[in-house]
Design a protein that fits this description.
Blueprint: E1 3-10, H1 17-33, E2 38-40, H2 52-58, H3 66-78, E3 81-90, E4 99-106, E5 112-117, E6 123-125, E7 131-133, E8 145-149, E9 152-156, H4 165-173, E10 176-180, H5 187-205, E11 208-211, E12 215-217, E13 223-225, E14 229-231, E15 237-240, E16 247-254, H6 256-264
Parallel strand pairs: 1-2, 2-3, 9-10, 10-11
Antiparallel strand pairs: 1-16, 3-4, 4-5, 6-7, 8-9, 11-14, 12-13, 14-15
Helix pairs in contact: 1-3
Amino acid sequence: MSTLPIALIQTRTPASPAAAFAHVEPLIRDAAAGGAKLILTPEATNFLIKDPAARAAALTSQDRDEVVGNLRALAQELGVWLLIGSAIVKSGHEGDDRAANRSLLIDDAGAVVATYDKLHVYDVDLPTGERWRESAAIRPGDEAVVADTPWGKLGLTICYDIRFPQLHRALAKAGAVMIAVPAAFTVPTGEAHWETLLRARAIETGCYILAPAQAGAHEDGRRTWGRSTVVGPWGEVVAKLDHDEPGVLFATLDFEAVTRARLAVPQLTHDREFQAPA
């Protein structure tokens, strides 16, 4: 199939798993009813909790997480492929109590066919005074992932990964024709950098960039930027939610556009070895 109808889900995820599923389920149903065959949700779809004690109480393994289980069943019921942009789950690494920030790709039978743990954790001090230390709670992954789908290969990234072009280039060179960028961007960085970074990664890779986002003022006190966006392989914005309210963004991907972009500028074949500066 050379075209693919998709939908990005923009959420304002609550602070409990039960409420999180109740929030996202009707949006996914709307997406499926609108004809989407691949549906993508944002980072931290299963809960957003700042408080360490409350977060620890909600944290469980991937196999026991109620949102993951419910979304697997929903994908099977609706007959769609679903990318859980990420779920915050136990990492499973002995001796490390930190969670994994994990994308899960679910097929139309409800099976988890690929997972990816966020490689780059968000440790920043913003000019606004906001300070984030994701590494305190999240164990970074160590493997890039490209997943097979019926429509072509999908590269998996999460949020802060967008600032690392070498990751996206590696995904494209491994065959990805679309790259997911589920996110919970802060407002100051979203306003300054979100669309620019998404368009840059599309131009550099000749891939579709699919970026579902958290949006608005959350129960735990954080604010996220929203503006879920689909960018085409020539760097053009194909579709965008120009707000920070929950919603569904539809788009149709034409994979002939990937071929045209890569033939016009075959940058993925032009790597040269060079000596790094001292």
